[in-house]
Automatic annotation (TrEMBL):
Residues 38-259 form the ABC transporter domain. Belongs to the ABC transporter superfamily. InterPro entries: AAA+_ATPase (IPR003593), ABC_transporter-like_ATP-bd (IPR003439), ABC_transpr_TagH-like (IPR015860), Bact_Polysacc_Export_ATP-bd (IPR050683), P-loop_NTPase (IPR027417), Wzt_C (IPR029439). One of its GO terms (cellular component) is membrane. It comes from Candidatus Desulfolinea nitratireducens. The keyword Isomerase does not apply. GO terms for molecular function: ABC-type transporter activity; ATP binding; ATP hydrolysis activity. This is ABC transporter ATP-binding protein. CDD domains: ABC_KpsT_Wzt (cd03220), Wzt_C-like (cd10147). The lineage of its organism: Bacteria, Bacillati, Chloroflexota, Anaerolineae, Anaerolineales. The keyword Transport applies.
Length: 422
């Protein structure tokens, strides 16, 4: 296969905390001498505290026609990497080779002028993105139809809603036809229906055999559009793997993996007082704290906490999500009216709220647990969306005698009956 993108030891370094001197300002002789000595001292100290590597030592190849996902938390270096590949900024070190015309969707709407009409901005933005006028003429009707702003195409865009503005901007960018397309988080525009339309368009681009580098925090889009992804962390590439594996790693990175999380005092916000979380843990039916439970066995979620003062109406909640962020269920320790009436006020002291998850409920996979401590419509004391993660082993679950995977986050053992009626 032909290599469309070759990156070798690529790095980009920035200085922070120093502003460039204006050309209109001139140093005195005393300033120049002082700056010279100061610069010499910094070199001798060899402590580049004002230097940050946004991207460091990144190497990878992308084959022609491949769609590669790039994922990572905020500040991981994703956008910097795409700017380097788009030649928006120059690298500090390393090299890159790109074979073919490069189109970049780094920021939707770049180049739009509020005083110009939608029609005029379509031509202006298309030119900025590298399209020739003849190409824009040929695709004009298709772009406008995709944007769904036909009635307002001759209206100045300063009168557009933010949704209309973004629809037209994405429509222009989405109709580029480069050999290499660099996309940075542009699918989160418009309403849900338009987002689905955008993802469908990106899927068409991928199926057309173009090389695509795709950055997004939408893991469903990454899984749908890409077969392989790289994971960035603090400017370095720490993994390249099939997208499902890379996404699971990204979603679980930085979270507890041993079946228990214990909060330090420094991790508890002062606004949580008088509530203080102490620990949360996964306990199997033998009383062991575990990270992996069997689908066919019940297990217990324990949330330990401290109250420094009495709290009226307190409820402790858990939120269960699949590894890819889909909600599975929410439950509170006072959902039962009897529990609500019994625990109207919780006095100062140490507590454990326990919740038993029945057997034959969860499907195989990795799950994320969030917690919440609040008084309904009065105050939220503490909340953490991604607190603990655990695995579910499907051994012995319904249907395991077939090797096919079961769709969904639950795998219930339902009571079926088969009756012959003639």
């Amino acid at each position: 296969m032909t290599i469309a993108v070759h990156v070798e030891n690529l790095g980009k370094r920035y200085k922070i905390g120093t502003a460039p001197q204006s050309r209109g300002n001139y140093n005195t002789l005393r300033d120049t001498i002082a700056n010279t000595f100061s610069r010499q001292k910094r070199l001798e100290a060899k402590k580049p505290d004002n230097i940050i590597w946004a991207v460091k030592d990144i190497s990878f190849d992308v084959e022609q026609g491949q769609v590669l996902g790039i994922i990572g938390h905020n500040g991981a270096g994703k956008s910097t990497l795409l700017k380097l590949l788009s030649r928006v900024v120059e690298p500090t070190e390393g090299m890159m080779q790109l074979r073919g015309r490069v189109g970049s969707l780094l920021e939707v709407g770049t180049g739009f002028h509020p005083e110009l009409t939608g029609r005029e901005n379509l031509y202006l933005n298309g030119a900025i993105l590298g399209m020739h006028r003849a190409e824009i003429d040929r695709k004009f009707d298709e772009i406008v139809a995709f944007s769904e702003v036909e009635k307002f195409i001759d209206t100045p865009v300063k009168r557009y809603s933010s949704g209309m503005y973004l629809r037209l901007a994405f429509a222009v960018a989405a109709h580029l036809e480069p050999e290499i397309l660099v996309v940075d988080e542009v699918l989160a525009v418009g309403d849900a229906e338009f987002q689905r339309k955008c993802i469908g368009k990106m899927n068409d681009v991928a199926e057309a055999g173009r090389t695509v580098l795709f950055v997004s925090h939408n893991m469903s889009a990454v899984l749908r559009l890409t077969d392989e992804s790289i994971v960035l962390e603090k400017g370095k590439m720490i993994m390249r793997a099939p997208s499902a594996e890379a996404v699971d790693y990204y979603l679980s990175a930085g979270h507890a993996r041993a079946g228990e999380k214990i909060w330090d005092e420094a991790d508890i916000p002062v606004t949580a007082a008088p509530f203080s979380p102490r620990a949360i843990r996964i306990v199997d039916n033998r009383g062991n704290v575990v990270e992996t439970i069997r689908s066919t066995e019940e297990f217990t979620l324990e949330f330990e906490y401290q109250l420094d003062q009495p709290i009226t109406g307190l409820r402790i909640g858990i939120y269960l999500y699949s590894a890819r962020g889909e909600p599975v269920f929410t439950s509170f320790d006072t959902d039962d009216p009897k529990m609500f009436n019994t625990h109207t006020e919780r006095k100062a002291g140490q507590y454990i709220s326990r919740c038993v998850i029945p057997p034959d409920m969860l499907n195989t996979g990795r799950y994320t647990l969030g917690v919440n401590a609040s008084s309904y419509r009065i105050r939220r004391y503490f909340a953490e969306e991604r607190t603990l993660e655990f695995n579910v082993d499907p051994a012995g679950a319904p249907g395991m005698h077939w090797s096919e995977p079961r769709i969904g986050t639950i795998r219930p053992r339902l009571d079926w009956k088969i009756e012959k009626v003639d």
